[in-house]
Amino acid sequence: MKLIRALIATLALSFGSSAFAAQDIVDTAVAAGSFKTLAAALQAAGLVETLKGKGPFTVFAPTDAAFAKLPAGTVEALLKDKAKLTKILTYHVVPGTVMSKDVAAGKVKSVEGSSITVTTGAGGVMVDNAHVTAVDVLATNGVIHVIDAVIIPQ
Question: Which helix H or strand E contains 82, and what residues bound it?
Answer without folding.
Answer: helix 82-91
